[in-house]
Write a structure and sequence with these properties.
Blueprint lengths: L2 H8 L7 H30 L6 H38 L6 H53 L4 H14 L1
Helix pairs in contact: 2-4, 3-4
Organism: Jeongeupia naejangsanensis
Protein name: Phasin domain-containing protein
Length: 169
């Protein structure tokens, strides 16, 4: 437990400011994400010889294609959203009061803010999905590699081993 965690645990939740609670939650989420990424890296190194398998390379390529398609879709949503805001800006009628002018402008800025927020959320969701999906996939590959290493030797392998032992004696 870190010093910060120990202090945070000692202070009742009701006395902790909301901003500190949110920051603590964000810190925990970043730590989980980094831990997943680290574990995925370790699992990848453990399964590295399996990457020589054409089937594994094809599956890795398919994962990359899925990510690329999602990014492409997100790019289209971004440009469509910008085009919608731009079209709405052109349709605004001329405001006859200052309050109406600022209301119209704020509406456009709010739409842009929502678009940016949606894009960030989608990108972070994609990053989380990549980590989880890749982790699941690499764990399957690792389990398969462990299973293959536990497969008993074939009859030929046993016979040749016995011959080597007999020749050595």
């Amino acid at each position: 437990m870190s010093f910060y965690d120990a202090i945070s645990a000692a202070i009742p939740q009701a006395l902790q400011p909301a901003g500190a609670q949110r920051l603590n939650g964000l810190t925990q989420l970043y730590a989980q994400s980094a831990s997943r990424q680290w574990q995925n890296g370790l699992n990848t190194v453990a399964v590295l010889p399996a990457y020589a398998n054409p089937e594994t390379l094809f599956e890795a390529w398919a994962l990359q294609q899925a990510v690329w398609q999602r990014l492409q879709k997100q790019g289209e949503q971004w440009w469509n959203g910008l085009a919608t805001i731009y079209a709405e800006r052109d349709e605004l009628r001329r405001a006859n009061t200052v309050s109406k002018f600022f209301e119209q402008e704020y509406n456009l800025y709010a739409q842009f803010g929502e678009l940016v927020g949606d894009q960030f959320t989608s990108l972070l969701e994609l990053a989380d999905n990549i980590q989880v999906d890749y982790g699941y996939w690499i764990a399957q590959k690792q389990a398969a590699a462990v299973q293959q290493s536990k497969v008993p030797a074939s009859a030929d392998g046993v016979a040749s081993t016995r011959r080597k032992q007999a020749n050595a004696a």
